[in-house]
Design goal:
With about 200 residues, the protein is mainly alpha-helical. Helices cover about 95% and strands about 0% of the residues. The longest helix is centred in the first third of the chain and has 115 residues, at about 1-115.
């Protein structure tokens, strides 16, 4: 009977030892799960903050893209206005060329008449006055032609500068669109990672 009692005590101690070991394993497993849950919560919070920051950046980039689009439209309008002014100046220059040729022809005619009417002092004086007036008009037209040509060259330079600014604005818009696409890709990657993390935590 004593032997049976001792055997029963040993069995009970063995079972208690096994139960204690199992309890220790369960506690370790619970600790591991709590640690994983805490890390998952921290990671989820970090991902949430990153997503919010990405949303803010996307909003800022969209606003900058809208501003660049508006600037681009304004530059196009300025370029169109400059081109119209250039066309008007080209037309003015052509008219001035015609006036100059007409005045040169008139000056030549007046000089011929002056040579033919040298014997008539009064008529020569009048013709000389007409010649002087025509030459003054020709000089004024020539000066106006030179000034107009300089203005046309300045407008051409301004047009080139505006075209460079428009090209730079278009490049800026393309860069912003590329950044926006990259942000969208990062957001999609973050969302996928959050989904995977959620599935992992649920498992």
């Amino acid at each position: 009977v004593i032997t049976a009692i001792h055997r029963l005590q040993r069995d009970l101690q063995h079972k208690e030892t096994q139960q204690s070991e199992r309890a220790t394993e369960y506690e370790q497993t619970l600790d591991d799960l709590r640690l994983k849950q805490a890390r998952a919560s921290e990671l989820l919070q970090a991902k949430t903050e990153a997503l919010a920051q990405a949303n803010r950046l996307v909003h800022q980039l969209q606003e900058r893209l809208d501003d660049c689009g508006q600037e681009s439209r304004m530059m196009r309008k300025q370029l169109e206005s400059t081109e119209q002014r250039c066309q008007e100046l080209v037309s003015t220059v052509a008219d001035l060329h015609d006036d100059k040729r007409y005045m040169e022809d008139e000056v030549a005619t007046l000089r011929t008449e002056t040579m033919q009417l040298q014997d008539k002092e009064q008529e020569c004086s009048l013709l000389s006055k007409r010649l002087q007036d025509a030459e003054n008009r020709a000089d004024a037209a020539t000066k106006q032609l030179v000034d107009t040509a300089a203005l046309a060259e300045a407008l051409k330079t301004e047009k080139g500068a505006l075209q460079l600014q428009l090209a730079a604005a278009n490049d800026h818009v393309a860069d912003l669109q590329t950044q926006l696409a990259e942000r969208d890709t990062e957001m999609a990657t973050t969302a996928s990672a959050m989904t995977d993390l959620r599935l992992t935590v649920e498992q």
